[in-house]
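Q: Structure for this?
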Amino acid sequence: MADRNYLGEFELMILLAVIRLEEEAYGVPICRELEAHRGRDVSVGSVYAALERLEAKGLVSSSLGDSTPERGGKAKRYFRVTSTGLRQVHETRRVLSKLWHALPKLKENV
Amino acid sequence: MNRADPPHIATWMLEHWTPGLRNDALAGDLLEQFRSGRSDRAVAWYWRQVFAAIASGCIREILNHRSAIFFAVLWSMVSPSWVVLSTNVEVHSRALGLMWQMDWPWSSICAIALSFSTSLLFIWSGMALYLIPRMSASQSFNMRTLVRSLLRAMPMFVAIAAVPFAMSLFFHARHGQGIDRRTLTPFNALTDLRLWAVVERLFNLPILLYGLWRATPLLRKPPGGLPR
């Protein structure tokens, strides 16, 4: 049976944001990164739900960071992509690229 | 508009109604975004985020416990058969027959204790049937964890058991008789859709759900880096 480990659209976006943010990847910057590129509001709860799924799959790991007064004394949770997660991103990109290249040329205004 | 504090009720709801381990980090992120002055409609944004967080947390919890929910529904469907079976054992047992020859209040105390014990035995059998294969599969079986898991169903059992018990006392007092289950077979009871069978299933379902729900965290190791 085929291995169904490909990432969902939202999960892939979050993984890319976490990779890009490097050491600063916690809830707020991840949401801002997604909002900036998607052009619409993101639910912080759904970002955390996706991050939990990714952590359960072993694609990201998390650790508690410092807390600041503007957070009401609540600690930040930093996320980092694991080597498995990075491999998964490359694999998904490879498959998507192949699929895109196999398409007939699309009109720019579509 | 850049308010200092978000609505307290929304924050309380977020902290208490969002299932999962990340409530603190999530609440901190929302507070940080709120205080950084996202927009002039920050309060509405905050409320929207809180409702979305609660909804996605609940959906995630339900999905995480889907096998427990499915099993609880299935096992509670069998509960009328268990009642009929235990009634038949009670009727045909010589030792239990002696119970009815006792004077009041001992006869009533024994009958109540027997009824509670058989109900609890049903709940615990179901939970053990669900938990043991999972513990064995994850190579985390140990008797202490199993007993702890079974005991976690007790508060809900005690709370819910009081309702049908009070109801049965009411019906006994009103009509002077209960339902004669001696004429039923366990197989007939399985498909019985009369009120007593439905009540029996509804009685067991929340207890099983509660017990299995609370037992599920004991089955898995905490993810790395997450203090509990």
